């Protein structure tokens, strides 16, 4: 086999260039700390790093979403804490009103409750500081509650939609509360009954809080109305189906004075002296009107109505105070339920954050194992490549010194 001088030189140069290229690649790996200087270094690992990096990016996005949800829930919690304290004061004021016997003092308490209603209305219309209302459902740009100054009626303008935020791969969370679920309903699952009296009653009958005696009774969940008529006095019990408003009235029963009336699975106690034409109701709480602002409006009007020296007016006032007290207790319990639900979501966010942080560490570890250079191995390879380059250089020098016409002494 004949090897030309040109081929010898080319082979030597190619060998040195290859060694220099390998050496330069090692310098790049060690200098940057990255094993994958280009995708060609390890195509499979390069593909895996892209997938892991995308997953890591999504995980960071979920963490940002959780932070937003947590901030919204914290703002709502602070507002509901103020609402809770205001409700405590309102309930105390109503209890106090039952112990006051002058119209003037009751009118003063009515003013106190009017201010409390304005405060609660302001809390119900709280914003997040960016112009978005906290309790208006999907309609964050719509003020949830408005007060008609002429009628005193407070109306809800939001909707019942949930502001869902994707806080994890498989979890969407409502980051807000719906106003009607806070101020206009009873806690889901509550089965108590609430009483009320007809505003036109002319007797002094007072109705107490109903007692559920048989939750499996055929009338369970129904509403009741007790009507007094006749002389001698008797009463009838009308069972009202809340779904259809269909009424079923029982046979008249003689009224023999204050005592317990069996409505059918529900008992109520009457004191005082009702008269013919008087009417009382007992409504299952899920079917009753428990609008917080209407309850406050009712009690304000009752406190502003003169009652001094008038037993009938005093009885009407006491029935309103008792009815409103029952409804405000329902509102108070429901607000605590909503706060508990918000606290549960915040606790879940903390748990998701902890899991997200662990996943993020795992992603970084995987990326590190795929991308980062092993300095011990790279240093060994660097020493080996340097030795190989020196050998290639030395070999090329030997070839350069070779001559077919060298003279031997």
TrEMBL record:
Alphabetized NCBIfam families for the sequence: flagell_flgL
Keyword Ion transport applies: no
Domain Flagellin N-terminal: 12-138
Transmembrane stretches, start-end: none
UniProt domain Flagellar hook-associated protein 1 D2-like: residue ranges: 197-281
InterPro entries named among the record's database cross-references: Flagell_FlgL (IPR013384), Flagellin (IPR001492), Flagellin_N (IPR001029), FlgK_D2-like (IPR049119)
GO terms for biological process, alphabetical: bacterial-type flagellum-dependent cell motility
Keyword Cell cycle found: no
An MF annotation (GO) of this entry: structural molecule activity
Domain of life: Bacteria
Protein name, entry field: Flagellar hook-associated protein FlgL
Xref: PANTHER family: FLAGELLAR HOOK-ASSOCIATED PROTEIN 3 (PTHR42792:SF1), FLAGELLIN (PTHR42792)
Source organism (scientific name): Orrella dioscoreae
């Amino acid at each position: 086999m004949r090897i030309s001088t040109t081929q010898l030189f080319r082979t030597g140069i190619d060998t040195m260039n290859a060694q220099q290229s390998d050496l330069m690649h090692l310098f790049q790996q060690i200098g940057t700390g990255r094993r994958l200087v280009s995708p060609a270094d390890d195509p499979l690992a390069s593909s895996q790093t892209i997938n892991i990096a995308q997953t890591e990016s999504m995980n960071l996005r979920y963490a940002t979403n959780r932070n937003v949800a947590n901030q919204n829930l914290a703002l709502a919690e602070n507002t509901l804490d103020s609402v809770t304290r205001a409700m405590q004061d309102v309930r105390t004021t109503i209890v106090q009103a039952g112990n006051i016997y002058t119209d003037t003092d009751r009118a003063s308490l009515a003013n106190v409750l009017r201010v409390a209603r304005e405060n609660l209305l302001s809390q119900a219309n709280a914003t997040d500081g960016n112009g978005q209302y906290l309790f208006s459902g999907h309609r964050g740009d719509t003020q949830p509650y408005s007060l008609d100054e002429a009628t005193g009626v407070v109306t809800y303008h939001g909707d019942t939609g949930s502001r869902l935020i994707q806080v994890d791969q498989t979890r969407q969370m409502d980051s807000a509360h719906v106003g009607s679920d806070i101020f206009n309903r009873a806690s889901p699952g509550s089965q108590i009954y609430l009483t009320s009296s007809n505003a036109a009653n002319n007797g002094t009958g007072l109705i107490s809080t109903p007692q559920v005696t048989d939750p499996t009774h055929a009338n369970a969940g129904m509403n009741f109305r007790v009507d007094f008529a006749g002389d001698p006095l008797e009463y009838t019990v009308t069972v009202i189906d809340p779904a259809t408003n269909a009424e079923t009235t029982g046979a008249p029963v003689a009224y023999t004075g204050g005592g317990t009336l069996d409505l059918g699975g529900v008992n109520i106690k009457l004191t005082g002296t009702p008269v013919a034409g008087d009417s009382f109701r007992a409504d299952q709480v899920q079917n009753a009107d428990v609008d917080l602002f209407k309850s406050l409006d009712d009690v304000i009007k009752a406190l502003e109505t003169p009652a001094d020296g008038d037993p009938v007016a005093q009885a009407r006032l006491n029935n309103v105070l008792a009815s409103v007290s029952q409804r405000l207790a329902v509102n108070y319990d429901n607000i605590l339920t909503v706060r508990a639900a918000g606290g549960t979501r915040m606790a879940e966010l903390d748990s998701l954050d902890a899991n997200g942080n662990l996943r993020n560490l795992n992603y970084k570890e995987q990326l590190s194992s795929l991308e980062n250079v092993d300095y011990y191995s790279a240093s060994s390879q660097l020493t080996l490549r340097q030795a190989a380059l020196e050998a290639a250089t030395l070999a090329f020098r030997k070839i350069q010194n070779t001559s077919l016409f060298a003279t031997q002494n």
